[in-house]
Amino acid sequence: MQILLVLLALTAALIIFMLWRTARFTKKDGEDLPPLDVSDRVPDQEIADHLAAVIRCATVSNADPEKVDWSEFDRLHRVLEELYPAVHRTMEKEIIGTHNLLFRWKGSDPDAKPVALLAHQDVVPVGDVSAWKYPPFSGTDDGEVIWGRGACDMKNHLVMVMDACERLINEGYVPERDIYLCFGQNEEVGCVPAMTGADLIASTLRDRGITLDLVLDEGGAIVSGDTLGIKQKFAMIGVVEKGFADYRITAHEKGGHSARPPKHTGLGKLGAAAVRLEKAKKPLRLIPPVREMLIRLAPYMPQFILRFLTANIDICEGLLLKVLSLSPLMNAMVSTTYALTQAQGSEQDNVLPKDAWLGVNSRILPGEDIDGVRKFIEKTVDDPSLEVTITKAHQVQNISPHDTKGFELLTELTGRYYPGTLVAPYQQFGGTDSRNYYIVCDNVYRFMPFCIGSGDDTLGAHNIDEHMPKDGLGRSVCFMMDFIKEYKGEA
Ligand SMILES: [Zn+2]
Q1: CATH number at residue 418
Q2: 62, 216, 225, 457: which sits with the fewest CB atoms below 10 Å from its CB?
Q3: Sorting pLDDT into bands at 50, 70 and 90, what band is 212?
Q4: What is the CATH number of the domain that holds 373?
Q5: Based on the number of CB atoms within 10 Å of its own CB, is 257 exposed (0-12), middle (13-18) or buried (19 or more)?
Q6: Residue 395: helix, strand or coil by DSSP?
C-alpha cells in the first residue's frame, strides 16, 4: 500500500514537472511585423525588370540533351552579360560542360575558403500553354507581379545573386574570400545525364583542389506559419534532403486467357502486396534537424499536446513521433515514405498479365539507405514470387550543421529584413543541385530569402501561372548583399 502511494506521488510529481516545463516552453505569439523597407536602396522595379528579361529565355531542360533548345541557354547568357556588365568585367567566367555557368569573384585573402552561391538556369516545361493567364515566357509585369515560367523557381534567386554582386562591385566592394557563382543547366531533370550539370561543376571544383566554406542554394524560404497554426512567418533553412528512390514490384506469371484464371493473377498478388505495404508500421525517427525544428517552432503551436511532448522530448520522444506520424506532412519528416504511384497489368481486358508491376516512390530518411528500403519492401510484401527492383534512385546522407556561422548569419539577416520571423532548420523533401556539393563542402544550406506566402500558395512553381510578387525583390537583393559582405567564415 505504501509503495503504491509512493508511486502515485512520484507520478504526480513527474506530471507536475512536465506541465511546468511545458508552461516555460510555451511562447506567446509575437507580432508579425512588416518587413524592412529598402525601396531607397534597391528598388523592386529594377529587379523585377531583370527577372522579366531572364524569364523571356525559354531555358526548358530535358533528360535527353537532344531535346533541349540550347540556343535559349545561349540567349540567357547574353541577357546576363547585358544586365550585369560589372560582374562580367570583374569575375572570371567559365562554361562548364555545355551550358553550366561558373563565375569566380576573386577575394583579397587567398587563404580564406570560398563560398558558392548556386542557382539553376533551367525551368520545367510549361504544360498547357493555353491555360496560362499570360504567355509563360512573356515575363509579363502586371504592376504587382511578374508572370512566367521560372519566376519563383528559380530565376528570382539567380537574378537576386547577380544583382547583389553587380551592385557590390559598383560600390567598389572586394570580397575577402573567393565567391563562386554556380548556375547549373539541368537541375529540373536531376542532372541527367550524369556529369552534365551541377554534379559536373562540383567535381570540377573538387578536381581543382577547391573546398568551400559554405554553399547556398534554393530550397527553404520564408513561409507563413498557417499550416502549423503559428501566427508568425518562419524561415525554413534546408540542411538535409531526403533520398529518393523508385521501386518496382513485379509479378512474373505465365499469362494466358482470362477465361481460365488462376486463383490469384499477378495483379491480384500485387494488390495484396500493396495493402500490406500501406498497412505496415514504418520505423519513425527524429533526425537532429527535425528535432531542432520542433524545439524552435513547437512553443508557438496552438496544439497543447505538441507543446507538452516537445517540451518533454527527452522523456516522450516515442509518443511524440506517434503523434507526428498522424499528419501526412509531419509523418514525412519522421519516416521514410512509400507512395504507390504506378501500376500495370496486361494490355487487354481478356488477357492475364504476364509481368504485372507496381511502382513505389519512396522518400528516404537519412540513416536508411536505398537497398535497405528495397529489403523493407521485400520483407513487408512477404511473397517470394514477387520481385522488388530499384528503377531510379539518388541519396546523399549528409546533414549540414545548424550551429555554424553561416546558419547564424542567415538567422540574423532574416531578423533584420523580416522582423518577427522564426528561423528553423528543416529537412527538404525535394532534391536540389546543392546535394552534389557535399564533395567539396560540409555547410550546404538551402534557403531563398523570399516570402512565398502561405503553405499552399507555392506561386505556381511547376504549375501553370508561375509568378513572383515584385514587392520584396529589392529586399532579397539587400539580404544577399549583406550576406556576401558579412559572412566571416567558419574558421
Ligand atoms: Zn528549383
Answers
A1: 3.40.630.10
A2: 457
A3: very high
A4: 3.30.70.360
A5: exposed
A6: coil
- End-of-domain residue from the set 361, 394, 427: 394
Domain of 323 in residue numbering reads as 242-394
> 428 and 316 in one domain?
no
**pLDDT band at residue 457 using 50, 70 and 90 as cut-offs:** low
Q: How far is the CA of 433 from the centre of ligand 1 (A)?
A: 8
CA distances 352 to 20, 248, 265, 383, Å, are: 64, 19, 7, 19
How much distance in Å is there from the Cα of 178 to the middle of ligand 1?
Answer: 25
Distance 463 CA to ligand 1 centre (A): 13
In a domain, 320, yes or no: yes
**Helix intervals (H) in 280-401:** 288-297, 304-311, 313-324, 328-334, 370-381
Nine-digit cell at 131?
Answer: 491555360
CB 455 within 8 A of CB 123: no
Q: Are residues 353 and 406 both part of a single domain?
A: no
Rounded Cα gap, residues 224 and 222, in angstroms = 7
- The whole model's pTM is what? 0.93
Distance 121 CA to ligand 1 centre (A): 9
- Give distance in angstroms: CA of 484 to centre of ligand 1: 22
Query: Is 359 a domain residue?
Result: yes
* Cα 447 to ligand 1 centroid, rounded to whole Å: 11
**Ligand 1 centroid, distance to 123 Cα (angstroms):** 8
Boundary residue ending a domain (359, 394, 429):
394
Measure 244 CA to ligand 1 centroid, in angstroms: 16
Answer whether residue 444 is part of any domain: yes
Whether residues 261 and 363 share a domain: the answer is yes
- Does residue 35 fall inside a structural domain? no
Number of domains, the chain? 2
Helix (H, G, I), strand (E, B) or coil at 136: coil
For 115, 210, 256, 344, 362, the CA distances from 355, given in Å and listed in that order, are 50, 49, 12, 8, 22
Our CA angle for 181, 182, 183, nearest 5°, is 115
Q: What is the pLDDT of residues 216-243, one digit of tens each?
A: 999 999 998 887 888 889 999 999 999 9
**How remote is the CA of residue 133 from the centroid of ligand 1, in Å?**
22
| Same domain? 366 vs 414 | no
Do residues 207 and 269 both lie within one domain? no
Distance 120 CA to ligand 1 centre (A): 7
Mean pLDDT of the chain: 95
